[in-house]
Amino acid sequence: MSLVFLFISCTNTKENISYTGSSQFSDIRYLELESKRKQLIQKVKNDAEDIEKLRLSNEVNTIIASQLKKGKFISQRTSSQKNKYYDFASSLLDYLRNISESSSSIQKEVRTEISVEPEAGYITQYIVFTKYETENKKMHWKSYNYGMTLPIKTYMFRVVGRKSIHVEPVVIWDNPSILTINVKDL
């Protein structure tokens, strides 16, 4: 039922979208994620009395919109069903949902408890998400230590292993912000 609704919504847009192969899948995924983003940000705006909660929600919302725009651009030019921008937007939507459902006020800085599974001596680093998007090759990653205090923001965390690197967007907002980054075969 929801796929039919999304397909109908997509056919009523003024945009020129191709419906062949995996492009159709990508267009439907875009519309699905965009719809969730709009609903959640509207919920936060309607319910938010906490200025920090509203500021963080707007920051996450802006990043999600940017990732969806990039994802749509890529999906219209490739036939791959795998789209890292949609994956990032999807994971950030989970954070936005949690923020919108939170009844507690948000502090400006919070204690973090971010761990890596399985534990194998990986190097964990972070950078503010907006710097990650704009600095490209000149990124200055900071070392992360379990239990450190960070300002509420959206970050990109990376876990460096012997074979490869795992990168994941993380919104630091809850006190304490607890997260386990699951990596396989690094």
Q: How many individual β-strands?
A: 7
Kindly estimate the percentage of residues that lie in beta strands according to DSSP.
Answer: 15-25%
Strands of the widest sheet, in order across it, are 3-2-5-6
The largest sheet, given as strand count, sense and whether it forms a barrel, is:
4 strands, antiparallel
- Enumerate how many helices there are, as a single number: 5
Estimated structural class: alpha+beta
Question: Would you kindly provide a written description of the structure presented here, covering whatever features stand out?
Answer:
- The protein is an alpha+beta fold and 186 residues long.
- It folds into 2 domains: 2-101, no CATH class; 109-182, Immunoglobulin-like.
- 46% of the residues lie in helices and 23% in strands.
- The protein contains 5 helices and 7 strands; from the N terminus they run H-H-H-H-E-E-H-E-E-E-E-E.
- It has helices spanning 2-11, 22-47, 51-75, 84-101, 129-135, and strands at residues 109-117, 123-128, 142-143, 149-151, 153-160, 165-172, 177-182.
- Strands 3-2-5-6 form a 4-stranded antiparallel β-sheet. The chain has a 3-stranded mixed β-sheet with strand order 4-1-7, with no helix packed on it.
- Strand 5 and strand 6 form a beta hairpin.
- The longest helix has 26 residues, at 22-47.
